[in-house]
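Narrative summary of target 7.
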Amino acid sequence: MGFEGWTAEAIDFYDGLEEDNSKAYWQAHRSVYENAVLRPMEELLAELSGLLGPGRVFRPYRDVRFSADKSPYKTAIGATVGDGGYIQLSAAGLAAGRGMYVMSTDQLQRYREAVDAEPSGSDVARIVAAIRDAGIEVTCHGRVKTAPRGYAKDHPRIDLLCMKGLVVWRQWPAGNWLATPQAGSRLVEFFTRAEPIQQWLSRHVGPSQVAGTR
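Modeled conformation, tokenized:
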């Protein structure tokens, strides 16, 4: 069966989990998670695999070992898809991202060198501007407060140089459309618009070369 969206039952499940993040709630509603939340995500990833590549759903359990918050379950289902793609469903609705959210030290060095250089720097600035003009957010995991060491504060691309990652991000509030194939269509359109960022990152940054990192 192909992807047909997420019903209101999926949103209600996460509404309830936010109010009662307990093992008792999870066990009582496990079948809802498996049928109304997880299964549509797996069907969606199967459909997107032809366009973006294989996907993987994250486990629903939080790692609480080093967290003051001991809530056992994530209040959203998340999945990776293809190269740099991410999908998330929560009580708030649907969200998607593409790019490099966190860069390792060697990736960040290559990223800044490429932003500084020509024509790669002008290329990414033009891509980012076009995406923002389309009403899509371009963000990052974190940024330096001032210019990175070795770069001038008045650099024409200082905003990009200060970023510690580069991600295209979009969120859609929950609505009736979410229970239709339109949910998949919106994601396809988003990932297509974000493709130039991913191509630029693959060409100029690439995977980390530091042992023990991905």
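DSSP finds seven helices and six strands in the chain.
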